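Our consortium's second objective concerns turning raw sequence data into structural hypotheses that experimental partners can test. To show how far this objective has progressed, the report includes one record in full. It was chosen at random from the queue rather than selected for favorable results. The single chain below, 96 residues long, was entered without modification.
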Amino acid sequence: MIDKIQPKPVAGYTGSAPHTDGRPRPAADRASRSDAASAEVHLSEGAREIQRILQAARDAPDVREDVVKGIRQQIDNGTYRIDVEALARRLSHLMK
């Protein structure tokens, strides 16, 4: 499909963005410039807080073993009860 739009590629095309004069920069020139320059990023306190929260969520276990263990013991003892009204309320929100 690209061949139909542009049957012959432009001479010297490398897929990189053109330099200010319209010519692509050589790869060696791009590498040396990126090594010489450094970028600095400053995050707001809110952004840092979001990063901390996301990291805490990543570090948290997928399953709370203590909760599962307690429920299993209740089921084994025959003492586990389901609040059917609370379950119905939660399910009704899904059906809206």
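The partners drew two points from this record. The chain has five helices and no strands. The first helix runs from residue 2 to 5. Both points have been shared with the crystallography group to help prioritize constructs.
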